[in-house]
Design brief:
Number of strands: 9
Shape: globular
Helix content: 10-25%
Number of helices: 3
Order of helices and strands: EHEHEEEHEEEE
Strand content: 35-45%
Largest sheet: 5 strands, mixed
Structural class: alpha+beta
Distance between the termini: 38 Å
Radius of gyration: 17 Å
């Protein structure tokens, strides 16, 4: 018995269109779109009367699979929470990128919240944290050399 790989990362969103556009702007491509509902889904996720719409996004090389999920029912009573980089639990996804300066400039023009200017970590990486739609935190990392 062994773990072979991470299959996907799922992100629950309220505005599926905006979240989808954000990740497409970063360079991911829509791989699939579907809707799910029914008793089996209810049992899988442990909720009642579940209805979802999903978008699967990936890199052209197939290495990344992110699922954006819009729960039509039941709704999250707490609404969108704005976590910080130090909030306990899973908080961000890191993308290895080329030309971090161009990506951050594009995100700034789009109105994306940038945690700080691009920082160089030792002689190994340029790093920047950004907050996408609905509080999604991404780390962008460009390897130096």
């Amino acid at each position: 018995m062994k773990i072979k790989r991470i299959d996907h990362v799922s992100i629950n969103v309220n505005d599926l269109t905006e979240a989808k556009a954000f990740f497409i702007d970063l360079g991911l491509e829509v791989q699939a779109e579907w809707e799910m509902a029914g008793e089996q889904l209810d049992r899988i996720v442990g909720l009642n009367d579940v209805k979802t719409t999903c978008v699967g996004l990936g890199m052209p090389d197939g290495q990344v699979w992110i699922e954006l999920v819009k729960f039509h029912t039941p709704s999250d009573e707490k609404g969108i929470q704005q976590p910080f980089a130090n909030t306990l639990g899973i908080q961000h996804i890191c993308f290895s990128v080329e030309d971090i300066e161009a990506i951050v400039a594009k995100l700034k023009n789009r109105g994306t919240e940038i945690f700080s200017e691009i920082q160089q970590y030792e002689e190994s990486y340029k790093l920047c944290y950004v907050r996408g739609p609905e509080g999604i935190i991404l780390e962008l990392a460009e390897k130096i050399g």
